[in-house]
Design goal:
The chain folds into four domains: 3-73, Beta Barrel (OB fold (Dihydrolipoamide Acetyltransferase, E2P)), CATH 2.40.50; 84-144, Beta Barrel (OB fold (Dihydrolipoamide Acetyltransferase, E2P)); 158-214, Nucleic acid-binding proteins (OB fold (Dihydrolipoamide Acetyltransferase, E2P)), CATH 2.40.50.140; 225-285, Winged helix-like DNA-binding domain superfamily/Winged helix DNA-binding domain (Arc Repressor Mutant, subunit A, Orthogonal Bundle), CATH 1.10.10. Helix content is 16%, strand content 37%. The protein contains five helices and 18 strands.
Length: 286
């Protein structure tokens, strides 16, 4: 388990993440929040849209200002520590490149953490992390930053992934900002863009710790040709269709080339596997 995920489970206040914190003091220039082991953290008036009172709880992002002091904001950044995101370069200076991550203070990618020299105006996939000097920075050297810790996932566990590259086999994906995984092309029914974030499932962990992923919930047999056709149809229609077991045999035959009986059997299998849900007006893909 990564240190980031371990700290989340322990409920510690995390630098570079959104935390639920209590207001402990009001001052002329803002509010102080209870940062637990990090001490009291200032939430400036400029970061607050409405009045707060002592005892109120807020969801605040914790980072450091230009003078290296802990500070809070109620703004949601484009990425947090542990995330991989496509971010635009606002400026390149003598110390590195600065990315737009949605906050006034831009995010530094030191030259030593650039897989290639970053160019102003272009966007790059970057992993956010806290460096040895306790600064929030980013790296585009994803191979350097991922797969540094032992793999500790359960089979069929749901995880969050980011698509990072196209390969001959399919797609290379970052899992939870910590490990590499692979989505095989013959198991993906649509094109996935670089930077696309979604849920996936651990399908196999190889002896060399390489990880195979699935977009569909395991338990459903991919040998069901009609089921795969239904899933593909749902994905092409934003995950929902009004076609269901209540539809006419003619509509089902025109769309899927099968009888209504076979269609009902297939959606029944998909429902049992947790791949779809049947609603009053149609079918929805999970």
């Amino acid at each position: 388990m990564s240190r980031l995920r371990e700290s989340r489970l322990r409920g510690l206040v995390q630098l570079g993440r959104i935390n639920t914190l209590s207001v402990v003091k009001e001052v002329d220039f803002g509010y102080y929040l209870d940062g637990q082991d990090l001490g009291e953290i200032l939430l400036p008036n400029s970061a607050v849209e409405s009045m707060l009172e002592v005892g109120d709880e807020v969801d605040a992002f914790i980072y450091k200002d230009s003078e290296d002091r802990l500070i809070a904001t109620l703004k949601t950044p484009k990425a947090q520590v542990g995330d991989i995101a496509s971010l635009r370069v606002n400026a390149v200076t003598s110390i590195g490149a600065f990315l737009d991550w949605g906050l006034e203070k831009e995010l530094l990618v030191p030259f030593a953490e650039q897989a290639e020299r970053l160019e102003e105006g272009k966007s790059y996939l970057a992993l956010l992390y806290v460096d040895v000097s306790n600064r929030i920075v980013a790296s585009t050297k994803l191979d350097k930053r991922l797969h540094r810790e032992p793999v500790n996932y359960d089979l069929h566990q749901q995880v969050e992934i980011v698509i990072c590259d196209h390969t001959d086999m399919g797609y290379k994906a970052a899992i939870e900002g910590a490990h590499w995984g692979v989505l095989y092309r013959n198991e993906v029914f649509k094109e996935l863009r670089i930077g696309y974030r979604t849920k996936a499932y651990i399908n196999r962990i190889r002896d060399d710790d390489k990880i195979d992923l699935l977009l569909e919930k395991p338990g459903y047999s991919t040998n069901d040709e009609l089921g795969n056709k239904i899933i593909k149809f749902l994905k092409q229609n934003d995950g929902f269709t009004h076609v269901s077991d209540k539809s006419s045999p003619e509509i089902i035959s025109r769309l899927f080339g099968v009888s209504k009986k076979k269609f009902k059997q297939s959606i029944g299998n998909l429902l049992k596997a947790g791949v779809i849900s049947i609603e009053s007006d149609g079918i929805r893909l999970h």
